[in-house]
Design goal:
Blueprint lengths: L14 E7 L7 E2 H6 L7 H9 L3 E3 L2 E2 L5 E2 L4 E6 L17 E4 L3 E6 L16 H9 L22 E7 L2 H12 L4 E9 L6 E5 L1 E4 L7 E4 L9 E9 L3 E8 L6 H8 L22 H13 L5 E9 L6 E5 L4 H19 L1
Parallel strand pairs: 9-16
Antiparallel strand pairs: 1-6, 2-5, 3-4, 3-6, 7-8, 8-9, 10-15, 10-16, 11-14, 12-13, 14-15, 16-17
Length: 344
């Protein structure tokens, strides 16, 4: 930590939990509202309490919650304890282990489980479960996350490979970097996807106004290259079941790419899929969709297939999982709806 924070902290060391620099075009906005767009899972009352307790700094000065952020402000959230994600504790949490040997394991993550600790999710994560299950020190990846070769979102279910050794971490990470690993997802999206198959290419980066979202930018402008290959599996009237194969693995890639072409994932609250985007205005239809949302209270996305070359045996390994019950039930509901609509 830089010394400029020392005197005000009464010689207690402060730890930086979040840092944001306001963009050039930032219009004046209360800091509690501003930080809501940058700190995942934080509530406005939590941010206001942090400000009241003197934990929010702007340009090296403590500010209150009514401070108006302006362009170029250097904003930091500081606490006297390290970020909880660096205080990892093993937890006895059941894991669906699909495969395991001395150097790696493959797990089927349920929807709702956070992969690694972060703001608002300091326990109950996949890493906490892995530390208990493996009972060995897992190697850190480039982001200091133990064992993680790749990740999937909290509310996405499906397959993940975890490295147990440094050598396995290096070997597996290179396959993901070189785009030689196989990753296939199944999703339910709003609307009738016209083409039977296609490829979406668009650089992904943080949304300029809502930092909790990703955004497609013009090629070469900003963001990182992202390529998604999709194929229609089943057309169900106002929704379509698709398969997506990732050539790259960017944050929220499938969710953002599908929204970009006009087919937001069903019940994807972050990107607007929790609203009725296609269909009729009939009350019965609205009730039908709301019931489907209750059955599947998350984005309709499942990491179904995972393939890679084993770090030691050099054998090509491929793993498949069944579509989870919540997604399967909603697909079946839409099948009945589409069939009934066609008959009338």
């Amino acid at each position: 930590m830089s010394e400029e924070f020392g005197p005000e902290a009464n010689d207690d060391e402060l730890y930086e939990h979040h840092k944001v620099v306001a963009a050039k075009g930032q219009e004046p906005l209360r800091i509690d509202k501003f930080l809501m767009n940058f700190i995942e899972n934080a509530t406005r009352s939590q941010i206001q309490k942090a400000a009241k307790d003197g934990h929010i700094w702007v340009n090296n000065v403590v500010v209150k919650q009514n401070y108006k952020v302006k362009a170029g402000d250097d904003i930091r959230v500081m606490f006297s304890h390290p970020p909880y994600e660096f205080l990892l504790q093993p937890e006895d949490i059941p894991l669906d282990v699909v495969y395991e040997d001395d150097v790696l394991l493959v797990v089927n993550k349920p929807a709702g489980m956070v992969v690694h600790p972060g703001h608002g999710n300091y326990s109950g994560t996949l890493i906490n479960a892995l530390l208990h299950h493996c009972k060995v020190d897992l190697p850190n990846n480039s982001s200091d996350r133990p064992g993680l070769v790749h990740r999937i979102d909290k509310d996405t279910s499906g397959l993940l490979v975890v490295a147990k050794t440094e050598a396995a971490m290096t070997f597996l990470s290179k396959q993901f970097f070189d785009k030689t690993s196989e990753r296939e997802y199944v999703a339910i999206v709003w609307g009738n996807v016209e083409a039977d198959e296609g490829t979406i290419e668009g650089h992904l980066g943080r949304h300029p106004k809502n930092r909790l979202q990703m955004h497609v930018f013009p090629e070469g402008d900003q963001g990182k290259e992202a390529i998604t290959h999709y194929k229609v599996l089943e057309r169900l009237g106002y929704v379509t079941v698709i398969s997506c194969k990732l050539e790259t693995g960017r944050t929220h890639q499938i969710r953002v790419h599908m929204k970009h072409i006009g087919h937001t994932l069903f019940n994807d609250e972050r990107y607007g899929g929790e609203r009725i985007l296609k269909g009729t205005t009939f009350t019965k239809y609205k009730q039908f969709v709301e019931n489907a949302f209750k059955i599947l209270p998350r984005q309709a996305l499942h990491a179904k297939t995972l393939g890679f070359v084993h770090p030691v045996t050099k054998e090509l390994m491929q793993f498949n999982t069944e579509i989870p019950e919540d997604m399967a039930s909603v697909i079946e509901k839409w099948r009945h709806y589409a069939k009934h609509s066609a008959e009338n």
